[in-house]
Amino acid sequence: MAPVPLLPTGHTSEGFIITTGPQNIRLSIIDLGTVAPGGTEQEALAESLAAAEHAEQLGFHRVWFAEHHLSRSGASHHPELLIAAAAMRTRRIRIGSGAVLMNHYSPFKVAELFAQLEAMAPGRVDLGMGRATSGPIIDAALQQNRDVANRADHGERVLETLAWLYEAFPDGHPFAGKPLIPSLAKPPQTWLLGSSPQGSGLAAGLGIGYTFAGFINPRAASAALRHYRERFEPRGFGLTAPNAILAVNVTVGETREHGEHLVNSARGFYAQLSRMRLGDDVPMVPSAEEGGRMLNPDQAQEPTRIVDGQWPRFVAGGPEDVRQTLLQMLEESGADELMIQNLIAAPADRRRSHELLAEMFGLRPPGP
Predict the structure, then answer these.
(1) Which pTM value belongs to this model?
(2) Using one digit for the tens of pLDDT, what is the confidence trace for 73-88?
(3) Could you tell me the domains of the chain?
């Protein structure tokens, strides 16, 4: 079947904006289902749902769930399941995927699934779309037809998904005139997630939201987000103006020393990854104490604030340290929203980090 033409459809929908303090900063969370040291996947999933409730109570704008397969460190394998469960336990916070790996799935399946989620939680569902290569074993396990090589058709899959959600197939197309859920008031919000500059052009050309993973590629984040804003063109897929999220790994402690200690879990996790081959089993997230023992001197001294204009992989420290770094990142990137990721091993420390973030940016719990 030929790719769906990129045509305006006449459908428009403003993005959801909330005020979260004097600077009108929106804060959100991406949840990995982190398995605590000595814990189980069942406990991690229960904690993810409890954390979504906690985030809503604190005034966070949205919570997204990750898609990581055959991962011992994170229990969030299929974000759609956690979205559905979180929808039943929350009332106002937006819930979504960060991200559905589109290179593995049918656009129709993804679009219909998220339309149904939107019907279950009207006005609250986000479809975050991305792609990833997870090594030969996982890629082969997810591949539908193993007799042929996968095509590099990420953009086509994203566009076809949008066409299903917005009924944007041109006249004469075999999929035209077949709404997914006719009574649905609005489709879910749609986002493209990426960690390289190429994705910013695709999101801008499609006229959808864009999220950059600054914790993966901090050096490219500011330029990619500004490129997206400069090139954005409304296409009738839900936005009339650009909407950009900067995703950052953030660890907040009670003091600078406490935050620098807690971030050793993230440092230790990535130190293990750097010694592994693609396709090896993903390690567990270590405790802060264990993570600190895994680091060589250079890794232990890796900056957690902006130094000489270079963004860090991990933002960490006390509340004021973190606040100043995040404000500078927002100013340099022009992002509309911050999405917080972390690899804090202990659930109690993770929740306290979120509480400190909410306090420092003046988030307000939603009304009744």
Answers:
(1) 0.91
(2) 999 999 999 999 999 9
(3) 26-360 (3.20.20.30)
